[in-house]
Amino acid sequence: MVRLKSRYLLIDILYPDPSTWPSTPTSKPPNPQLAIHSPTSDTLTPGFLAKMIRESVAELYGDWGIGKLGGASASGITIKYLSPATSTAIIRCPRAAFRLVWSALTYMSGVPEPGQKRAGTGRERGCVFRVLRVSGTMRKAEEEAIRRARREIVRVKEAEERGVLGGLAGGEIAVVDSVMDVSEDEGMDD
């Protein structure tokens, strides 16, 4: 039996353009860390993402690129995981063509708008596809996605705590320090 060798690309979809960030009901500007990692619309389905990648490979590399992906049907590319909430995906492709897929992702610059009823109508939300990891197994790609998600949660929580408690903690520490200085001075006089 022949084993088909594949590569798994863990990708992150980022939205660096502030005009594409979701609006907040308050007057406070959104946290840039959260806004860049904002959710992707539900119109981006695994099948549509695979189609976008195949079209990008065909545009960049022509028939040779499509042949490396597995032929005219290009069944070699499958989306194993797509989360619109975290804008994360895991793509399986042939081992011989993972660099073609990576370069095609680099040149892709948009996903369907959130308000669209169906994908492919021409209106796109500008984005950047960032390859986070290339792995030989699905398990390692999943572990990396979980590790990165946990790290982002901790980073955002720390930023919120600094923002909320920054003024309070700074003021309390200064008051406590001044009280300690006064009590130490009084103790020296005795």
UniProtKB/TrEMBL annotation:
Keywords: Hydrolase, Nucleus, tRNA processing. Its main location: nucleus. Pfam families: RNase_P_Rpp14 (PF01900). It is an enzyme of class 3 (hydrolase). GO terms for molecular function: ribonuclease P activity; ribonuclease P RNA binding. One of its GO terms (cellular component) is ribonuclease MRP complex. SUPFAM superfamilies: Rnp2-like. It is found in: Nucleus. Residues 21-40 are annotated as: Disordered. It comes from the Eukaryota. It catalyses: Endonucleolytic cleavage of RNA, removing 5'-extranucleotides from tRNA precursor. Its EC number is 3.1.26.5. InterPro entries: Pop5/Rpp14/Rnp2-like, RNase_P/MRP_POP5, Rnp2-like_sf. GO terms for biological process: maturation of 5.8S rRNA; tRNA 5'-leader removal. Component of ribonuclease P, a protein complex that generates mature tRNA molecules by cleaving their 5'-ends. Also a component of RNase MRP, which cleaves pre-rRNA sequences. Belongs to the eukaryotic/archaeal RNase P protein component 2 family. This is Ribonuclease P/MRP protein subunit POP5. The lineage of its organism: Eukaryota, Fungi, Dikarya, Ascomycota, Pezizomycotina.
